[in-house]
Amino acid sequence: MRHVPGTFSIAARDPATNTFGAAVTTGTVSVGATCPYVSANGAAVTQSYTKTEHGRDAVARADDGERIDDAFDDLLAGDDYAAYRQVHGVGTESEYTFTGAECVDWAGHRVGDDYTVAGNMLAGSDVVTATAEAYESTDGDMAERLVSALEAGESAGGDDRGEMSAAILVHAPEPEFYHNLRVDLSADPVGDLRELLTEARRAKEQIRSETDDLFGDYPDEILDFGVKY
């Protein structure tokens, strides 16, 4: 059992682009290593007393055609410590949230159309509400909406101890190198995540421009993630 306390996160699906994503921040280090999981058919987050297999197996089952709510129900049914877990996620046909009775207050979750938000050891319920509302109201691609959601949750109080790490993870038909961003230890991880996303977008445009100047037009598929290293 791996303990990752004090976390808030969002899992989401954009049905128009067939994109799945998850974002998370917490008061311990390296949250991106164990909590968010995405695939071509699902996004999942496992937190509180984190069991990585729940996130990994939920999206794997979604890829095999199972509804993600059914997958999570089955995984938790076989877990003797389910009361300590907090898991949530989205698939192509369903959303799912679960907050165990033994999660540390404040703990709770929210379900919207094609997204879920959950948190534990938070300043209060406003964190989850603000995260959800920011995701709903933000324009842009999945990465932009996820980071904006974390920013709003942090502004509403965030982790009751303050955050130390943050991450976003996205699965899209056209991948970008800013679809997997992690800030593993920082005094301002969400702010650093925003800076990292901004710099990643700028770097992509600069590299494309420089490559066009050197070689002219080229097929996008010639470069992995559209980037020349």
From TrEMBL:
Protein origin, superkingdom: Archaea
InterPro entries: DUF1028 (IPR010430), Ntn_hydrolases_N (IPR029055)
Protein name: DUF1028 domain-containing protein
